[in-house]
């Protein structure tokens, strides 16, 4: 991402990006400027690993704002989703505008529009690579809770 012109944007120095494999908030995805948490769906009888992308969370002195969901995307598309969010900010921000200021100005719907194509969920036969989780390129995804994971 740094080679895509993001390194030259000083306002990104304070940007927080948090990711968690589940929805239980251990990774604090809900208080990040950009947050991801793991999810899954069933498509034609196959488990599809996904991430829910949140925008606009942050904490400060006497202020907390939870990010709002803007997309639910196949896990394999998470890196592209992040690149699209950052490109949207890079291309449409005003001079000196922070990411938080940009989110407040353009609204969440603008992010939903930019991410909509990534939410399409083809069948396994159409795109078998999407049915593998990130980092597990050789095994099909199975939705399960492992030992030691909370079930809150």
The proportion of strand residues reads 15-25%
Strand order of the largest sheet: 1-2-3-6
Number of helices: 3
Mean pLDDT: 83
What is the CATH topology descriptor? Sulfite Reductase Hemoprotein, domain 1
Helix content percent band: 10-25%
List how many beta strands DSSP finds: 6
Main sheet specs: 4 strands, mixed
Q: State the CATH class.
A: Alpha Beta
- Fourth CATH level, the homologous superfamily: Sulfite Reductase Hemoprotein, domain 1
Report the principal-axis shape. Answer: globular
Secondary-structure content class: alpha+beta
Describe the structure.
The structure is a single chain. By secondary structure, the chain is α+β, with helices and mostly antiparallel strands. It is built from 3 helices and 6 strands. The model has no long low-confidence stretch (mean pLDDT 83). The protein has a 4-stranded mixed sheet. Strands 4-5 form a two-stranded antiparallel sheet. Strand 4 (58-60) and strand 5 (63-65) form a beta hairpin. The chain has one domain: Sulfite Reductase Hemoprotein, domain 1 (2-Layer Sandwich). The radius of gyration is 16 Å and the shape is globular.
């Amino acid at each position: 991402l740094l080679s895509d012109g993001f390194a030259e944007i000083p306002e990104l120095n304070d940007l927080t990006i948090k990711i968690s494999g589940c929805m239980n908030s251990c990774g604090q995805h809900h208080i990040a400027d950009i947050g991801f948490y793991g999810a899954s769906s069933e498509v034609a009888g196959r488990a599809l690993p996904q991430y829910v992308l949140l925008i606009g969370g942050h904490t400060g002195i006497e202020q907390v704002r939870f990010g709002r969901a803007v997309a639910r995307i196949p896990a394999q598309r998470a890196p592209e989703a992040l690149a699209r969010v950052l490109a949207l900010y890079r291309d449409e921000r005003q001079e000196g505008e922070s990411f938080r200021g940009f989110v407040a100005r353009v609204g969440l719907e603008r992010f939903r529009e930019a991410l909509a194509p990534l939410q399409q969920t083809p069948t396994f036969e159409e795109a078998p690579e999407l049915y593998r989780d990130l980092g597990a390129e050789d095994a099909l995804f199975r939705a399960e809770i492992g030992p030691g994971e909370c079930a809150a």
